[in-house]
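Researcher: Final request for today, and then I'll write up notes for the group meeting. The sequence and the SMILES for adenosine-5'-diphosphate follow.
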Amino acid sequence: MQEFILEADVMRSIMKVVHQVAKYDVTVLITGESGTGKELLAKIIHLQSPRSENPFVPVNCGILSGLMFEDKLFGHEKGAFTGAIRREKGCFEIADKGTLFLDEVSEIPLENQTDFLRVLEDFRFVRIGGNQLIESDVRIISATNKNLKDRVKHGLFREDLFYRLHVVPLYIPPLRERKAVIPKMVDRFLNQLAANYKMPRPSVKPEVIDTFCRYDWPGNVRELKNLLERVFILNHDEVIDLEHLPSDFLWHFRAPSRTMALEEVRREGETKAILDVLYRVAGDKEQAAKILRISPRTLRYKLSRYDIKVNRRGELVSKGHPEEHL
Ligand SMILES: Nc1ncnc2c1ncn2[C@@H]1O[C@H](COP(=O)(O)OP(=O)(O)O)[C@@H](O)[C@H]1O
Ligand SMILES: [Mg+2]
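Model: Predicted protein-adenosine-5'-diphosphate complex:
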């Protein structure tokens, strides 16, 4: 089972609730920013429950609406609509005797919420185009990175559905509010990476951990895990030092400029925007120029004027970074 890494005090309160709720079929709503470990925690609850031998079925509610939502959850009969060439089970049926994980539950369209709530009340439904009433025995765990109460207030989420899902709330704080766990996470993730890739496990310079602790991690644990994987794969030194960190990450720590000369402010602002966009489009300068609403020629001019050098992945190249020249 994958471990859920937590610092001592938060661990005690979250894990206590997890142990208590795992035994029963009580509905759990996990909240927290993206990348804080909501899905992992849901899986852990499932694996600690009497349902652990049966399926854990995640559904992303954020990408489905109308008939697609119904189809995904309740399935359809052959011929129910164009393209329905055979009977297809929905997630409720697939998760029978197991756990249904409703990810991004705040995004269920209003038009689907009424029917959905009705099914959550008695776990009986019909497949699209069918008339046979099907019963499913599922445990519901849902997750959201939005404030559901707020969505209720703004009329975007049914209040009765909110109370149905919000039986036991579990909140996972963002990584920036529990930085004490970072050294432990780095340690465990590097162990995992070394084991997965069958490569030696590097040690980490204290300066690197300090730098990690000064960063705010908007992508939370997912961002930390991905950064470590990137560093691990691209460097095979025994020790991870500051110079091994990608320059687009180190960029966050640049000292603020000493003057407010507009020319410099503009240069800094434009450089940052250009680098952000280039990184997001993986170095595609045509596309970057479009997003920045300048001509490719102006972009080339600015890159040269501001002395910005990027590699093929659109990351800033700094001297002494062998990784950047790949
Ligand atoms: N506390 C944690 N301990 C270990 N791994 C974690 C932890 N929190 C998150 N992760 C890892 O970070 C990544 C993102 O977690 P995930 O559960 O998908 O987040 P969310 O659903 O909140 O976006 C996954 O690879 C997960 O295993
Ligand atoms: Mg998720």
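Model: The pocket of magnesium ion (ligand 2) is lined by residues 38-39, 103 (CB under 6 Å). The CA atoms of residues 70 and 128 lie 7 Å apart.
Researcher: Thanks, that's everything.
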